[in-house]
Design a protein that fits this description.
The structure holds two protein chains of two kinds. Chain A is an all-beta fold. Chain A is built from no helices and eleven strands. In chain A, 0% of the residues lie in helices and 48% in strands. In chain A, strands 2, 4, 5, 6, 9, 10 and 11 form a seven-stranded mixed sheet that branches. Chain A has a four-stranded antiparallel sheet with strand order 1-3-8-7, with no helix packed on it. Chain A is globular. The model of chain A has no long low-confidence stretch (mean pLDDT 91). By secondary structure, chain B is mainly beta. Chain B has no helices and twelve strands. In chain B, strands 2, 5, 6, 10, 11 and 12 form a six-stranded mixed sheet that branches. The chains are: A mainly beta, B mainly beta. At the A-B interface, strand 4, strand 5, strand 9 and strand 10 of A face strand 6, strand 10 and strand 11 of B.
Chain lengths: 116, 112
């Protein structure tokens, strides 16, 4: 299994440009997540999805959009990039809620985005 | 709201030294607590977890005990190795929710 994969690894955008960060997992996980990590800060949840066709906002959704057309893929779209979106973006996935336990979240290697 | 406060870094230790990275949390109810590790160029990996008070999570020589009375989950290792150099994140999740709340991360560098 490749686990969670993310592309690209690095990207530089100009203010106002758009781009899509790709995320894919091959573990047949229902739940997928997008986090951002700002310098010196912890990860914050942007959006998450509990299954194909279902998405919901996290803590910091403004300026982003997501879609989930398949179980495997969960792309994150940045419209009108701003310097405040300079960050490292992590995608993660897991099986979902567990009645008496907790399913580990598996993370991709991250995408480092700079907006100038 | 729910939050995690983690020891500021960076931390530099000599090989075989004792490691403690402090983590305290604020949460209602009974959260689960985690330590994640991020090695250079890689994504975060779960290092250990504890899901109820007084549980001790352990893995790869690392340990952490869920202390409800002090709302803490400090990470310890008796003898660090160069290969332990990484960024360590403390995190919590609430029962019935998948969202993880992360601390700011602590960068550990172990020198030979």
């Amino acid at each position: 299994n490749a686990g969670v994969t993310q592309t690209p690894k690095f990207r530089i955008l100009k203010i106002g440009q758009s781009m899509t960060l790709q995320c894919a997992q091959d573990m047949n996980h229902n739940y997928m997540y997008w986090y951002r990590q700002d310098p010196g800060m912890g990860l914050k949840l942007i959006y998450y999805s509990v299954g194909a066709g279902i998405t919901d906002k996290g803590e910091v959704p403004n300026g982003y959009n997501v879609s989930r057309s398949t179980t495997e893929d969960f792309p994150l779209r940045l419209e009108l990039a701003a310097p405040s979106q300079t960050s490292v973006y992590f995608c993660a996935s897991n099986l979902g809620l567990a009645g008496s336990g907790w399913y580990e979240q598996f993370f991709g290697p991250g995408t480092r985005l700079t907006v100038l | 709201g729910d939050s995690v406060t983690q020891m500021e870094g960076p931390v530099t230790l000599s090989e075989e030294a004792f490691l403690t990275i402090n983590c305290t949390y604020t949460a209602t109810g009974y959260p689960s607590l985690f330590w994640y590790v991020q090695y250079p160029g890689e994504g975060l990996q779960l290092l250990l977890k504890a899901t109820k008070a007084d549980d001790k999570g352990s893995n790869k020589g690392f340990e952490a005990t869920y202390r409800k009375e002090t709302t803490s989950f400090h990470l310890e290792k008796g003898s660090v190795q160069v290969s332990d150099s990484a960024v360590y994140f403390c995190a919590l999740s609430k029962a019935g929710a998948n969202n993880l709340f992360f601390g700011t991360g602590t960068r550990l560098t172990v020198i030979p």
